């Protein structure tokens, strides 16, 4: 037996490991299993090129709990180590850069998966163990070795009687970490970090029923079936997940099965998937799924899992996956993502920028092909994916450039157009006297129904644009299309929205109009409504409430963030009350000499206009209903 001191430049490194490397001590299991996986894959490579004259076989990694002895075992069947290699890799190399590492990365280390990159993966064991043993036998024909360390710089190294190839690490779990002796805890960690590692991982056994048939040459329905229960290894991982395979080798059903493997509690099927697979100028594989999203911007993010060579790293992929795709689900796996930098450093990293740009391009290309191959199916899925695409157009210029080929603009009647199709369709009928194309839209089909119907009576097409960020998007589209403007259908009377050459003459004189406005302004609340007199068609509504497009849009943009005018989101609602001077009601109000009757007419007409805009609520609605009943007695 030999004893010695670990070659470490800090007097006692172990408390520092526990304090700085990770705030979450559970990471130790991922690191130790990763080491076992590396050792196994290296052996596979050496046997394949003839450098290791041993049978590779079907190696596994086994995790065993000894609750009574307070021990956790991690056993692999990989390369193993000789005593000299233990001395070299465990006692010297691991801590060659320890002091520099702790000084440089102590602030960011707890957020990143960097232990293994500095040779410190094995020592993460001391986060949870008061003593660690290594019993290892190399694939070379040399004696096994037994290394022991109690968390101080001292260690012992002696021969062992292990006869099988590989390494067993035994953690003597510390009193403050006994939770890691619970089956449920270890099972949870294995499923979180090691679910898709490339070597089978065994954790205990399970009972399986094997169907047996008795009798031969009998009809299928008469076969006597019995079941035999057998104990089999409980393999907790899938070593060959879908993203590691070629798209040509996978069926649509394979992609759905993998989706439910990733998200066992997700019962809805994904809408479609995008398989990422690139090996130059960086390595990246993965599968992104579009789930049903609807129009809610508050969807939970952090549903995309980041792996490095099938080892789970994090579900925070900010900076790697473009922000607008963070609402998707799936897996991204890349050995080229630097884990030894802080999250803010990721966004400045050149490789990461290339990866992000690639994902943006790949998603845009996939969407275009889906649209081209089956437009009808794409249209049916539009409402479930539009929020992602609209957000992408706003946040990623490269995506915006490609989006014109597949982003859709639905009408209130359920028809869908691309922007170019829309321009072509509306040009003849919805170009105003100044040559500007006016695109009418509604934000709520039910609430703005009367305005939609008035527009449709004129032969105009009305879009249904109801996402929470639509004001931002149409602002951007207008900026790129100077002869095009989007106007919500309730922002003014229809004749003012698309102004043609013809004008309607008012049947009220200028003096009568001035008198009418005076009457109205004395009754209509001026803090909410601005009274406007308009000479409209005599069949048009007498009172119309509109909300000016510019003010409403700026307010919406301010409320949803990222645009608009500062502070406008908190401004009270302001509306225009458009009064048709050619309506019989306008004449009746003007000519009625009974002040009470005049006021009653104005209030009733205003409430009817408010009702059509879904603005009549609470006490005002109660008073309106009561007044209406009195009028029809």
Automatic annotation (TrEMBL):
<keyword id="KW-0547">Nucleotide-binding</keyword>
<dbReference type="InterPro" id="IPR036890">
    <property type="entry name" value="HATPase_C_sf"/>
</dbReference>
<dbReference type="GO" id="GO:0016887">
    <property type="term" value="F:ATP hydrolysis activity"/>
</dbReference>
<dbReference type="InterPro" id="IPR019805">
    <property type="entry name" value="Heat_shock_protein_90_CS"/>
</dbReference>
<feature type="binding site">
    <location>
        <position position="81"/>
    </location>
    <ligand>
        <name>ATP</name>
    </ligand>
</feature>
<dbReference type="GO" id="GO:0051082">
    <property type="term" value="F:unfolded protein binding"/>
</dbReference>
<feature type="binding site">
    <location>
        <position position="35"/>
    </location>
    <ligand>
        <name>ATP</name>
    </ligand>
</feature>
<dbReference type="InterPro" id="IPR020575">
    <property type="entry name" value="Hsp90_N"/>
</dbReference>
<protein>
    <submittedName>
        <fullName>Molecular chaperone HtpG</fullName>
    </submittedName>
</protein>
<dbReference type="GO" id="GO:0140662">
    <property type="term" value="F:ATP-dependent protein folding chaperone"/>
</dbReference>
<feature type="binding site">
    <location>
        <position position="343"/>
    </location>
    <ligand>
        <name>ATP</name>
    </ligand>
</feature>
<dbReference type="InterPro" id="IPR001404">
    <property type="entry name" value="Hsp90_fam"/>
</dbReference>
<feature type="binding site">
    <location>
        <begin position="96"/>
        <end position="97"/>
    </location>
    <ligand>
        <name>ATP</name>
    </ligand>
</feature>
<dbReference type="Pfam" id="PF00183">
    <property type="entry name" value="HSP90"/>
</dbReference>
<dbReference type="GO" id="GO:0005524">
    <property type="term" value="F:ATP binding"/>
</dbReference>
<keyword id="KW-0143">Chaperone</keyword>
<dbReference type="InterPro" id="IPR037196">
    <property type="entry name" value="HSP90_C"/>
</dbReference>
<dbReference type="InterPro" id="IPR020568">
    <property type="entry name" value="Ribosomal_Su5_D2-typ_SF"/>
</dbReference>
<feature type="binding site">
    <location>
        <position position="76"/>
    </location>
    <ligand>
        <name>ATP</name>
    </ligand>
</feature>
<feature type="binding site">
    <location>
        <position position="31"/>
    </location>
    <ligand>
        <name>ATP</name>
    </ligand>
</feature>
<comment type="similarity">
    <text>Belongs to the heat shock protein 90 family.</text>
</comment>
<feature type="binding site">
    <location>
        <position position="167"/>
    </location>
    <ligand>
        <name>ATP</name>
    </ligand>
</feature>
<dbReference type="Pfam" id="PF13589">
    <property type="entry name" value="HATPase_c_3"/>
</dbReference>
<keyword id="KW-0067">ATP-binding</keyword>
